[in-house]
Structure formats: structure tokens, C-alpha cells
Amino acid sequence: MTSDNNDLYYPLDEYHFRTILETASEGILITNETGAILLINRRVEQMFGYDRQELIGKEIEILLPENIRSTHIRQRRGYVESPYSRSMGAGMELVGQHRDGKLIPVEVSLSYIRDAGGVLVLAFVTDITQRKQLEDEMQRTENLRLELEKKQEQVDFKQRLLSFVSHEFRTPLTRIQLSIEMLERYMDRIPAEKQRERIQSIQNEILELTQALENMLALSKNWAGKLQYNPILVDIVAMCRKNYRQTQLLEGRHHRMVFHTKDVPPLVQCDPILLQPVISNLLSNAIKYSPKGSTIHQMLYCEANQIVLQIRDQGIGIPTEALPHLFDAFYRAKNSSEKKGAGLGLAITKDCVEAHDGTIECQSEIGKGTTFTVRLPLTMPPTTF
User: Fold this and answer.
1) Lowest mean pLDDT among 2-6, 168-172, 288-292, 366-370
2) Is 50 exceeded by the pLDDT of residue 107?
């Protein structure tokens, strides 16, 4: 038994074409060069709520919201001048308008026919309301998931803060209490030099506790979205010098500390409350992780419309694998475990720098030292005449 491909051919007359047109799941429209509707199928009637007699001869813009009709007229005129086929996969998402005024999200693909009368435009319209609703629901679900993740992070963060307070504050507070009791009980027997050492030790413990507490509060504010940048005119050289001297007096008595400054304007705009922990944390870390007798350089200068604060030490250095995590809250490099600290200082330092729209970077080599470089936008007061 043989068959011929011609046996598979079934001639379609106008009735069959009409039936296919009317039963199509997509809305089908044909317009002429001027945008007048020549033909629609039943799906267009269902989609937009019009009878076809109300649409035939009308401009296609009747099916669009009024606020985009003029734009659409320009677009369809351009299309008629240079027509091309655009598949549904590459369809343009638009908004149609139902007869009752309700907006309908639709996707449209286009094709065209040239005949003696000019260009006929074929539009295939799909109602994507359900798809949009599903996408919106998925987006809401994703937003909820992200919000829950953020809340869980905040809970975890608070738990770590509580753990930090419980463990890290108890020891220095105990040492302070013991030192005070020793001074009270044996004041008349302790030599004056030893008394000064005890008092200095108490001051250092209080300084560390105060700095840790300030870091915790600042970090908590940032997590709660309350870390605000309030710039004022500041003599930044005087501010850095004051920090340098206070740190040298309280922590750096066994180090050689050098402060350099060059070409810094007398006044710049910054937030001194946020800049304070940046300077203090970087200087304290430089002292903490450097051997006695080594030199710590603090440099302040201008470069490419930026204020640059650089602190360089000759300390133990930071392992390469630790550098990407250096500014994470509670992170501490392996070689820093012998030193007191909770891993909060650099996290809040980075937050305070970024609040200034600035940057901070670190370069370090084991056994040779570390350099932190902070760059802040240089903003000066306007010149007055």
C-alpha cells in the first residue's frame, strides 16, 4: 500500500479559516496602515468586552489606556514604515483597557502582510493577567522570605551581642574590681609607682570597655537602620591629632607614634561622631597588634578630591585568607586570638566610613605589618566673598 503526500493535503475554505480564527485561544486583530481595525476574533471580544461591530473601523488605540495612546500612535506609524515579524516569545508587554475601564496586562506579537492596498498588520494578543498575578505572588513570597531572613539575622546578631557582653565584659570588670580593692586595702603598703601602674591599668580597662560598648551601640544602630550621617564643618587635622594624643597617652606609651599631615584644608564636612570610632579603632588595633618599641604612623592628606587617612603599623600582620572577612562582625583572624577583642571594631569602622560614602581597604603582610587606608569625599564649605 502506498501513500502520496498529496493525500495529506486537505483544502481549507473560508469556513474553516473562520472557524480557526474564532476558536483561537489568543486575541487576533488585523488593522490597516492607519491603525483602523478591519477584523477581530471572538477572543478579542471576550478580552476587552466589546462587540466586534463596536470595534470594526475604529483605531486600535480604543483598546489602550488614554495616557499611552499618543505614544502608541507614533510607535505603530513607525512599525508600518518598517514592518517586521515579532514572535510571542519576544513579545512586548503592554497594558490594554477593558470597555469598563479595567486595565489588562497583555503580551503582543506582530506580523504583517503586504498587498495592493498597502500594509496590513496582524496582532496576536494574550491576556497575561494570571501570569502577572502569579509573578506578583512569587515576588511577595520572595520579599517575605528576605524579610524573615533579615529578622533572623537580627535575632542572631542580638544573641551574639548578649553573649559578648556576658563573656567579654565580666573579666575586665572583675580585674577593675580587684585592682580597686587592692588599692583600698593596701594603699599604705604599695609603692607610689605601683599605685600609678594600678591606676593606669584600671584606666586602660575602662577605655577598652567604653570603646567596646560604643562599637556595640553603633553596630546595633546600623543594623536597625538608625546609623545617621550628620555632617558639620570640622577641623579634621585637630580632631585626628587629639585622638592621636589621647591614644598615645592611654595605650601607646610603649610605642613610637608619629602623626603626619599634608595639604589638608582647615575645615571639611564630615560627621565627627561617626569619624571618631574610625580613628580610635584603627589606632587601637595598630597598638594592640604591634610589638613594644615599634613605630605607628598616622597620615592625613588630600588626594584626588579625597581626604585620606592612613594608619600603618609594624605588627604581626593579617593572614591572606582573613582579609575578605576582616570587616565582618565578630570575625577574628587566627593569629589574633591571644589579644583581647570581640571582632566588632573593624565592622563598625567600615559602617562609619561607608556612611560618609567613603571606602576602607587593608594591605598586610605577616610579620611585617598592616596598613589601613580610609578615603572620604573631600567636601569643603563654599567660598564667601
Assistant:
1) 2-6
2) yes
Q: Chain centroid to CA 378: how far?
A: 23
How far is the C-alpha of 76 from the C-alpha of 185, rounded, in Å? 95
Show Cβ contacts of residue 91 under 8 Å, excluding neighbours closer than 6 positions.
107, 108, 109, 126
Angle between helices 345-355 and 192-223 (to 10 degrees): 50
Residue entry with cell 587601637: 284
Q: Where are the domains of the chain?
A: 5-127, 228-377
What pLDDT score does 168 carry? 56
Q: Which residue has the higher pLDDT, 377 or 385?
A: 377
The span from the CA of 14 to the CA of 104, in Å, is: 32
Give the C-alpha separation, 61 to 304, whole Å: 55
Burial 17-37 (b: 16+ CB within 10 A, else e): eeeeeeeeebbbbbbeeebeb
Of residues 14, 29, 230, the one with CA closest to residue 121: 29
Residue 229, Cα to own-chain centre: how many angstroms? 17
Average pLDDT, the chain: 83
Distance CA 19, CA 179 (A): 99
* Residue 224 predicted with pLDDT over 70: no
Q: Please tell me whether residue 103 adopts helix, strand or coil conformation.
A: strand
Spatial distance between the Cα atoms of 150 and 139, rounded to a whole number of angstroms: 16
DSSP assignment of 263-295, as one string? S--S-EEE-HHHHHHHHHHHHHHHHHTS-TT-E
CB 342 within 8 A of CB 286: no
Q: What fold is seen in the domain 5-127?
A: Beta-Lactamase (3.30.450)
Task: Give me 3's grid cell.
Answer: 501513500
CATH of 228-377, one of 3.55.40.20, 2.60.120.260, 3.30.565.10, 3.40.50.720: 3.30.565.10
Ranking 122-131, 173-182, 264-273 by mean pLDDT, the lowest is: 173-182
Please state the length of the chain: 385
Residue 11 CB contacts under 8 Å (≥ 6 apart), including other chains: none
